[in-house]
Structures are given as C-alpha cells and as structure tokens.
Design goal:
There is one protein chain. The chain folds into two domains: about 200 residues, Rossmann fold (3-Layer(aba) Sandwich), CATH 3.40.50; about 170 residues, P-loop containing nucleotide triphosphate hydrolases (Rossmann fold, 3-Layer(aba) Sandwich). It is built from 21 helices and 15 strands. Strands 3-4-2-5-6-1-7-15 form an eight-stranded mixed sheet, sandwiched between helices. A seven-stranded parallel sheet has the order 10-11-9-12-13-8-14, sandwiched between helices. β10, α12 and β11 form a beta-alpha-beta unit. The two termini are about 35 Å apart. The C terminus is likely disordered. The structure holds adenosine monophosphate. The site of adenosine monophosphate has 19 residues, from α3 and α21.
Length: about 475
C-alpha cells in the first residue's frame, strides 16, 4: 500500500515523502480515506501507531480546499492532554503542511499567554491546544469558534484521567453543531464510550490492534529486586548492558528527583521531567535527551504523556504504575512505528498486586529475571498465570492415612517448593521463572541492534497487524 493510493494531494504527498515515510501504517491506511470523506471517526489506537499523521494529513487536505480563516478564528481544533503532546502534534502539523498555505499554532498552560494571543490575532487554520489554556484564551476573547470545521480529541482517555472532562464539555458546547469529529484513545473505559456517544455522529470505528494490547515488538522483562536496591540495579544494568538512551518512569515527583541524584552519583547523566518543573525546564530536559546529551530521562506518568522520541530503545519502570493502563502508555514510548524496543520493570515484593493487575490487563505473564548480585531478600510471589501447575493425582485413602502419620514430612514438602525455587535462582546468574520467560529467551536471538534499526521505521512502517473497520451507529 502506498500513500498515493489513499487520495492525498500532491503537496501533502511531497511532505510525507520528505518525512522519509515510504508506506502508511495500518491506522493511516484506515483513517486517511475516512477523514478525507468528512465522516466522524472513533479510533482505538495505541501510542506509536502513527495516528498523528493519520488524522493530520487528511485534515490538512480538507482545510486547504476550504475558505480563508478570519481574525481570531480557528478552523480545526486539536485537543491534547499535555503540553508535550501538544507541541509534538503541532510539529507534525507544521511538517506535513509545509507546502500548503495554512497557518497553525499551539497553545498550552505554564507559559505567558500574551504571545499566544498575538499568534491567534490573524486567525489560524489548525490550533493544537490543551483544554485549560484554550478556555483561558476563549474567556479573554482571543479565540473564536464560529469557523470550526473539525474537532480532534487526541489521547482522550488521558484527558479524562487528568480531569479535563468539564473543560471538554464546555468547549464542545461552544463549537458549531455542524463539524467533523475525530476521537483517538488508547484504551476504552465506559466514560470514553459515553463521551464518544455524545460527541460523534455515526462514526466509523477504527481499531488497529486488540484493545489494551501491548505492542508486539516490545520485549518486556520483570527484574525481581528489593526496593532498597532498585537504583543500584538500574545503574548496574545501564553500565553492564551499555544502555545509551533510557526513559525511566517513577510513580512520584520526589521519587524522580531522588533517582536522578542517585544515577548522577553513579556517573550516569540524567534529566528529570515532572509536574513541578517549569515548562522551559521540561523543554530543555527533553531536548537534552533527544540530542543524546544525557543518557537518562526520568519522568512521572503525567509529564511523560505524549513524549515521542525516535528510536528510543529502552523504557524502565522504576516503580510499577498504580493505574495498570499506564503500563501500556509507558512501554509504548519504545518500539514506535515499527522499531523494536525493550521495556524493563524493576519489581519489588510489595508491588505484586500491581504486577498482577498489569498482567491481567495485557493478558500475559511477564518474563522474570534476577540479576546476579541483586538476589532479592523478599521474592516477588508468583503471579496468577505462573502459579498454574498440573494437578497432582488424588491421594488414595491409604496414602492420606500415611500422610497424617508423617506430618513433619508434609511441612517439609510445602516449603520444599519454595526452596526449590530459591535454589534455582541461587544456582544461576539469571533465572526465568515462567514459560513466557523461556520463549522470551528464545526470541533474544532475533533482537536487532540500535544501529541495524536505523531507518527501520521508514523501511517497514508499522507491524503488519490486521485491521478492522466497522460503522457504528449513534445511540
Ligand atoms: P504517533 O503514533 O503519531 O505518535 O507516531 C509515532 C511515530 O511514528 C512518530 O515518530 C512518527 O514520526 C512515526 N511515523 C508516522 N507515520 C509513519 C510512517 N508511515 N512510517 C514510519 N514512521 C511513521
């Protein structure tokens, strides 16, 4: 499949070509013709699927054919949950629209509002915005919605998680009734379904990978480790495996700051992004990381949402997320648009319930490892799927009677299970404790080095997953 067969104009195709994309990703194949036709879209798209170009390319083409934008008006509104995602979407709009006579802008909070008001004065064709700042601008008469032709809710699930529902409702109520609506979400909670039913008009439903599934190209591993030794293990893995560019997630802002200090102490250059950092600090940190000036970017979930870093080979979960869907968002930062990636989770015994929730969500038991020299004092209990063992045949009455006489034996037998597990770990450098682990090791030989991966996105596009598309009636 080529981009030219999707109905895109010459000027857009030229921009796509200059971006180095040779083939559309599955979500682009599905989305582009539908958006070009003017229909509403409800898309279940994981992060890294190429969804931004999926909606930007056809919207730009439709805008190029329409009327001129009036002062302070906008013609397409893209709402995103975070500033980082807003900036990235705006960059894509500018890149794909560079040969078209269209104006675009991005607005988000945490920076001065005046330059954004100036930018809007002559009107823009595409405005990418976070909801809070957009409402501030509206209240100050800096932006008018009467000319809006299309609304995009990007990463809608995260917008609801972040409490933007009231802002979103308010914004929707201000838009002209006749418009095109596109909703993209990685996961589909009941709240998202309700929002989509209210917002979308007879949408075409597009799904490129099974709901809540993790990208197949990402190798996922759990390292069992005591909480107190996590930062030492991370430094050790960084140095022994020579990881050069790692995005590390922590649950708290304090945890992020503390970890950054520890890594710096071990000689590993690190920057931090979290909610308490000013916008210019965040932008500087991200730029340093993208420019390979530092090896580690430590981030909390909210701050990391929407980060798109090309060829990011490793993501580390320093703590497991409290909300299991965040695991999918986190690891989706690697293995983007067709390249391979590795997601490593450092898990201590107290996190077993979070691990169970994640494994249930993704429908697989994660491969486990214990790094030599980091054997945990407190083992992470085996999780549901790993616990399933063949049933023992039922004992006969005679055997049961004998068993009663030998109570100490029975106790030994019970703990024998545990000691068997421990001795396995002690006896080898690394122990895989699950069947998934074994298959994972077999797949190691297929791993590709970062060098080999260069340009793999352009060459291969996305994983060739089957896609489905069904019209969905408004309820
Ligand atoms: P997104 O899911 O929109 O955040 O895109 C993820 C990454 O895929 C971005 O770095 C894009 O530059 C890249 N990308 C988008 N479309 C393509 C394509 N057709 N081929 C290769 N890479 C792409």
């Amino acid at each position: 499949m080529s981009f030219s067969s999707l109905g895109l104009s010459e000027l857009i195709l030229r921009a796509v070509d200059e971006s180095g994309y040779t083939e559309p990703t599955p979500i682009q194949v599905e989305t582009i013709p539908v958006v070009l036709s003017g229909k509403d879209v409800l898309a279940a798209a994981q992060t890294g699927t190429g969804k931004t170009a999926g909606f930007t390319l056809p919207l730009l083409q439709r805008l190029a054919a329409g009327p001129k934008v009036k002062a302070n008006h906008i013609r397409t509104l893209v709402l995103t949950p975070t500033r980082e995602l807003a900036v990235q979407v705006a960059e894509s709009v500018a890149t794909y629209g560079k040969h078209l006579p269209l104006k675009s802008a991005v607005v988000y909070g945490g920076v001065k509002i005046n330059p954004q008001m100036m930018r809007l004065r002559s009107g823009v064709d595409v405005l990418v915005a976070t909801p809070g700042r957009l409402m501030d601008l509206f209240r100050q008469n800096a932006v008018k919605f009467a000319q809006v032709e299309a609304l995009v809710l990007d990463e809608a699930d995260r917008m609801l998680d972040m409490g933007f529902i009231d802002d979103i409702r308010e914004i929707i109520a201000l838009l002209p009734k006749k418009r095109q609506n596109l909703l993209f979400s990685a996961t589909f909670s009941n709240d998202i379904r309700k929002l989509s039913e209210r917002l979308l008009n007879n949408p075409v439903q597009i799904e490129v990978s099974p709901r809540n599934s993790t990208a197949e190209r990402i190798k996922q591993t759990v390292y069992e480790v005591d909480k107190s030794r996590k930062s030492a293990l991370l430094s050790h893995l960084m140095l022994s495996k020579n990881w050069q560019l790692v995005l590390v997630f922590t649950r708290t802002k304090d945890g992020a700051d503390h970890l950054a200090q520890e890594l710096e102490r071990d000689g590993i250059s690190t920057v931090v992004i979290h909610g308490d950092k000013k916008q210019n600090q965040r932008s500087r940190a991200l730029k340093c990381f993208k420019d390979y000036k530092v090896r580690v970017l430590v981030a909390t979930d909210v701050a990391a949402r929407g980060l798109d870093i090309d060829e990011l080979p490793h993501v580390v979960n320093f703590d497991l997320p409290k909300v299991s869907e965040d695991y999918i968002h986190r690891i989706g930062r690697t293995g983007r648009a067709g390249s391979e990636g590795e997601a490593v989770s450092l898990v201590s015994a107290d996190e077993v319930n979070l691990l169970v929730a994640i494994e249930t969500l993704i429908g697989q038991t994660l491969a486990r490892e214990v790094e030599s020299g980091f054997n945990p004092k407190h083992r992470v209990p085996l999780t549901h799927q790993a616990k399933v063992r063949p049933k023992k045949p039922k004992k006969t009455k005679q055997q049961q009677e004998r068993g009663k006489d030998r109570k100490p034996e029975k106790d030994k037998d019970r703990s024998g299970n545990k000691s068997h597990r421990r001795s396995k770990t002690k006896g080898t450098d690394k122990t895989k404790t699950t069947a998934a682990g074994k298959s994972r090791r077999r797949n190691d030989s297929e791993a590709v080095s970062p060098k080999q991966r260069t340009n793999s996105k352009a060459k291969h596009g996305m994983a060739q997953k089957s896609t489905s598309r069904k019209p969905r009636g408004k309820k």
